[in-house]
Write a structure and sequence with these properties.
Layout lengths: L1 E7 L2 E8 L4 E4 L5 H10 L4 H8 L6 E2 L13 E6 L3 H12 L8 H7 L4 E7 L3 E2 L5 E3 L6 E2 L2 E7 L5 E9 L1 E2 H6 L4 H5 L5 E9 L10 E8 L2 E9 L7 H9 L8 E4 L17 E6 L3 E9 L9
Parallel strand pairs: 5-16, 7-13, 8-18
Antiparallel strand pairs: 1-2, 1-13, 2-3, 3-4, 5-6, 9-12, 10-11, 10-16, 11-13, 14-15, 14-17, 17-18
This protein binds 2,5-dioxopentanoic acid (DO4) and magnesium ion.
Length: about 300
């Protein structure tokens, strides 16, 4: 069972659920967290409350909806170097390809404390169909397809979504202290298209993540991995995020990338990125290059 928001003429968006057969049922709550809170108030699981609405008349089929972000995540955080593939890619960009060097990426991959960084706010985060931007001062940019955990203020995992942690490999490779600039800019994060309810997932480590990139109607990249390749446990990542921190209901924690395009690949203006997570759906975003600018002294 998945939760979406779709565009509706008379309202900004409508919260709805999608059943296994792809039928969409409207939910009478303004947003995902209100729905979760209502289930708690009624002493039911979110899934049990969701099921009650499938007795209603469906409004549409999922394929026909124009979707928005499934929620306004107040903050998006991200985990790094949680898959071998990510560690190897970072080592490549940090050492100009000297793969025998041992770096801080090797250290963090094996360390007890995971890498967790601040990725985005609701205003910087886009949803299905919206443009993700390319920075004007980077020549090596890639999407990072990641499993996103939707959590409440206590760190409880409420659901799963797909996320794109857009990244500048040249900026991060130049100096790891540039990480916030390599990761955070306008439209550098995308989430959606749906929230797969945690109650409806038996084993999240069985979820698969696929990324496809299209250029001039041709597929130029296609890669796939499984969450069971994750070095850490999902709960472990959440516990480090919430430790001595203030987290807000509906925060999204991205869990790291495990699909990386070849080292010579960079995104171009006009590309289309598809990120598919089994059970969640396909998050599709066109890519838009930001015009070159001079740095301005204020
Ligand atoms: O260490 C930098 C970021 C790594 C990251 O974003 C990832 O592994 O997904
Ligand atoms: Mg990432």
């Amino acid at each position: 069972m998945r939760i979406i928001r779709y565009k509706k003429k008379e309202a900004k968006h409508q919260l709805a659920l999608v059943n296994k057969e792809s039928f969409v049922f409207d939910l009478p709550y303004p947003d995902f967290m209100s729905f979760v809170n209502e289930a708690e108030k009624q002493g039911k699981t979110v899934l049990a409350l969701a099921k009650e609405f499938t007795a209603n008349e469906p409004v549409e089929k999922y394929e026909n909806m124009i979707l928005t972000t499934p929620l306004d995540a107040p903050e998006v955080w991200a985990s790094g170097v949680t898959y071998e593939k990510s560690r190897d890619a970072r080592n490549y960009e940090a050492t100009e390809g000297k793969l025998d060097a041992t770096t801080f990426y090797d250290k963090v991959y094996d360390a007890e404390r995971p890498e967790i960084f601040f990725k985005s706010t609701a205003a910087r985060t886009v949803g299905p169909g919206q443009e993700v931007y390319l920075r004007s001062d980077s020549n090596w940019q890639i999407p990072e397809p990641e499993l996103g955990l939707v959590i409440n203020k206590d760190g409880k995992i409420l659901g799963y979504t797909a996320g794109n942690d857009m990244s500048c490999r040249d900026i991060e490779g130049e100096n790891p202290l540039y990480l916030p600039q390599a990761k955070v800019w306008k439209n550098s994060c995308s989430i959606g298209p749906a929230i797969l309810l945690a109650d409806a997932v038996e084993d999240p480590y069985e979820l698969t993540i696929t990324c496809r990139i299209f250029r001039n109607n041709e597929k130029v990249f296609d890669g796939m991995a499984s969450v069971n390749q994750l070095k850490r446990k999902l709960d472990e990542l959440v516990s480090y995020l919430v430790l001595d921190n203030e987290i807000f209901d509906g925060t999204v924690l991205l869990t790291g990338t495990c699909v990386v395009p070849p080292n010579e690949f960079t995104l171009n203006d006009g590309d289309t990125i598809e990120i598919e997570i089994s059970g969640v759906g396909i998050l599709i975003n066109p890519v838009k290059q930001q015009a070159k600018k001079e740095t301005v002294l204020y």
